[in-house]
Amino acid sequence: VNINIINLFEETEESSSGLELLLPATSELVAGIFAFSIVFFFVWKWALPILSETLDQRANAIEGQISEAKNTKWEADKTKQKYDNLVSNADDQVKKILDEGKATAEKLKEGILDEARKEASDIVSKARSDSEAEKERISSEIKSEVADLSLAISEKVVSSMSKKDQKKLINEFIKDMESSD
Questions:
Q1: Nearest by Cα to 72 from 80, 84, 61
Q2: CB burial class (10 A; 0-12, 13-18, 19+) of residue 29?
Q3: How far is the C-alpha of 154 from the C-alpha of 42, rounded, in Å?
Q4: Which of 34, 43, 84, 113 has the CA that lies 20 to 30 A from 131?
Q5: pLDDT in tens, the chain (181 residues)
Q6: DSSP state, 78?
Q7: Which helix (H) or strand (E) holds 18?
Q8: Is 169 exposed, middle or buried (0-12, 13-18, 19+ CB in 10 A)?
Q9: Cut 0.70: pTM above it
């Protein structure tokens, strides 16, 4: 196999120069240029406009998709901002409602405490007046009992006194009554 390659290489060197190997024959060159020109003309005339139109349509479709994506992104950002505002407003409203609830609860608490204080004060006042009334009643009963006892003792003392002493005691009592008026 090595011998065949070497023989082929030697024959090539002997038959032509290096430049002739690279360039085709003139007839082949003219035929190739003519065939290329015909193919180029048909491609230029029919295939290139169709290809150009297809590429333009594809470019327009891509630009439309990009524009649509930008619009969708813009709408999504707008919607997101709207919902962020709603959430922020909802947080503010919740805080406001909680604050109002706390204030209302505090007012109710103060009202209930004031009412309880008033009721307690009324109960204490009533208890004091009831106590005073009971004290007066008991004092009156004690005075009545003391008066009854004094009368009974006086009757016993007077009954043991002589008539002359009794008259003297009555006269002194009348004088005391007259002088106190």
A1: 80
A2: exposed
A3: 162
A4: 113
A5: 556 666 655 655 555 555 666 676 788 889 989 999 999 998 888 888 888 899 999 999 999 999 999 999 999 999 999 998 888 888 888 889 999 999 999 999 999 999 999 999 999 999 999 999 999 889 888 888 887 787 777 777 777 777 787 778 778 878 887 786 6
A6: H
A7: helix 18-22
A8: middle
A9: no
Helices (runs of H) and strands (runs of E) counted in the chain? 5, 0
Yes or no: say if 23 and 15 are a contact pair by the CB < 8 Å rule. no
CA angle 39/43/47 to nearest 5° reads 150
Give the burial string for 123-161 (b: 16+ CB within 10 Å, else e): eeeeeeeeeeeeeeeeeeeeeeeeeeeeeeeeeeeeeee
Are residues 21 and 12 in contact, defined by beta-carbon separation less than 8 angstroms?
A: yes
Residue 97 in tokens: 């409602």
The pLDDT, as a whole number, for residue 4 is 65
Name the residue type at position 70: K
